[in-house]
Amino acid sequence: MKKIISLVVVSLLVAVSCTRKASKIDYGLELNDTLRVHIASEPPTLDWNKSTDTTSSRIVDNLMEGLTEYNFEDPELSLQPGLAEKWTSSKDAKTWTFTLRKNVTWSDGVPLTTKHVVDGWVRLLSPSTASEYAYFLYNIKNGEKFSKGEVKDAAELGIKVIDDQTIEVQLENTMSFFPYLLTHTSTFPVRQDLIEKFGDKWTDADNFVGLGPYTLKVWDHDKALVMERNDKYHGQPAVLKNVIYYMISELSTAINLFDAGKLDALDELPKSEMASLTKRPEHRKHSFLVLQYYGFNIEKPPFNNVNLRKAIAHAIDKKEIVEVMGSQDIPLKSWVPSGMFGYEPDIGLDFDIEKAKEFLKKAGYSDSAKVPRLTLAFNTNENHQKVAENVQAQLKRNLGINLELKNEEWKVYLSNLKADAHSMFRMGWVADYPDPDNFLNLMISSSQNNRSRWKNKDYDKLITQAASELDKEKRRGIYQKAQKILVEDDVPAIPLFTSVHHYLVSDRVENYPANVLNNLPYHKVRFKK
Questions:
Q1: How confident is the prediction along the chain (529 residues), in pLDDT tens digits per residue?
Q2: CB within 8 Å of 3: residues ≥ 6 apart
Q3: Element (H, E) at 474
Q4: How many Å apart are CA 273 and CA 270, to the nearest integer?
């Protein structure tokens, strides 16, 4: 991987170092009409029904569009029309009707119809897809049963096509925020004809067809990915013709390229250099609805012991982690991050070494030397490495526990998590929609994104109940009970901190996106004249 990255760096340097006035860069792109950005790794997949990671969704959000979209100019992130020009609901918010825009076409000129929307939803729920986001649509009538193979016929789903422009959706339970789910990449329409024609290669650049402001032009695996303006996009055309993502894992290398004028934006910064980077004129920051946490596979010894999990949780000083990182992140005890409804600063386990030692004894380890060597896995990233090293030092200092660290490249890491390979692991969760349900349903028994294998029927009932509750204060009380079960009683995971997003943007760039969801649509970005 390092060899490949070094070749990318060389090509970047060769392409633009000869002269600052060069008009062409990699892949024959025009410098003055191309936004050059950085991603840390190869996107695992651009199949939006299957992707679960932020790298993939960041790209898909520019290539595709959902029925609804966020109004990022509104601080409360209200919804606005996307592919649907309007939507209505019954009084109990169990029946929703969506009307598609007219004259919307895919990038190959094929008109968008309700069939493409339904195909996307059915494919998301289908057991054969094995999507980790299938649970997003479980509340559709028979959605969960269909996904689990208990209902075989998709015609039994609560989805009714009225005509080519209108869809009616019947839900099992009241859900006031259902339209928010349709902003998410996993729920986007699909072209089943292309999937059947090309199989797994339907997302290759030569075969890709989308509905967004950009379309896929080049996917040079492990090196770069190029998007080109979609001239058939129904909305306002993208200002810049191209966006190129360079895949560079070492953040220090990416900073050097930014300083050399070869990158226009750097969306992740190394914590080790934050003190100096925040003083730079190109530095920007904004609040960020994200949860960083360590999870336990509770089916694997020794983490099938709840007292050991509580001991570790009490032994970690999250304030120390944040101070070491130096990035103004916010320590977190509860599961829902600060800055949104459902945040509960008084719920969760405090840093308390004496309690940690008590729980270690309850776990059967009066002598900490007898605790088996534990392994913490994380994806390769110098920021994650720094957090892991601090936690390693804290557990050794506070409990005498040895913690071995193991890092893996992102695609390998996700694959191993799915294959049940790690007993303690790092994960993060960026809000898909600004509602506590998005963070708390991550840990329900049926969630494919619940890597801990934890199941609690009382917790599941509370999350279902809260999603159907229209009274905000009653809903808050339900979520309080749920969070106590999650982070105080059973502790299948330890919330660490919620982040402040720091990034660098070149002086030549205007209108670079910034929002609490860290959604990065590039179609409005322009260069200064």
A1: 334 444 444 444 444 444 344 589 999 999 999 999 999 999 999 999 999 999 999 999 999 999 999 998 887 788 999 999 999 999 999 999 999 999 999 999 999 999 999 999 999 999 999 999 999 999 999 999 999 999 999 999 999 999 999 999 999 999 999 999 999 999 999 999 999 999 999 999 999 999 999 999 999 999 999 999 999 999 999 999 999 999 999 999 999 999 999 999 999 898 888 889 999 999 999 888 999 999 999 999 999 999 999 999 999 999 999 999 887 889 999 999 988 889 999 999 999 999 999 999 999 999 999 999 899 999 999 899 999 999 999 999 999 999 999 999 988 999 999 888 799 999 999 898 889 999 999 999 989 889 999 999 999 999 999 988 988 899 999 999 999 999 999 999 999 999 888 999 999 999 999 998 989 999 999 999 8
A2: none
A3: helix 472-484
A4: 6
Supply the DSSP string of 318-352, one letter for each residue. HHHHHHHHTS--EE-SSSSPTTSTT--TTSSPPP-
109 Rama sector, left if φ>0, alpha if ψ -120 to 50, beta otherwise: left
CB 486 within 8 Å of CB 480? no
Kindly state the helix (H) or strand (E) to which residue 13 belongs, with its residue range: helix 2-17
Q: Quote the CA–CA distance of 26 and 282 in Å, as a whole number.
A: 24
* DSSP 8-class letter at 256: H
The residue written with tokens 């991603």 in the block is: 39
Question: What is the 3-class SS of 39-86, one letter each residue?
Answer: ECCCCCCCCCCCCCCHHHHHHHHHHCCCCEEECCCCCCCCEEECCEEE
Residue with token string 């402040």: 500
DSSP H helical ranges for 107-232: 114-125, 143-147, 178-181, 192-198
Tell me the two tokens of residue 323: 């101070």
In what side-by-side order are the strands of the sheet with 374-379? 330-331, 493-498, 290-296, 424-430, 374-379, 403-408
Place of tokens 């943007």: 505
Instruction: Tell me the pairing of strands 403-408 and 374-379.
Output: parallel
- CA 154 to the chain's CA centroid: 28
- At 497, the amino acid letter reads F
Whether residue 125 contacts residue 133, with contact meaning beta carbons closer than 8 Å, is answered with no
DSSP string, 94-142: -EEEEEEPSS-B-TTSPBP-HHHHHHHHHHHH-TTT--TTGGGGTTBTT
Cβ 187 vs Cβ 137: under 8 Å: yes
Q: What are phi and psi of 73, to 5 degrees?
A: -85, -10
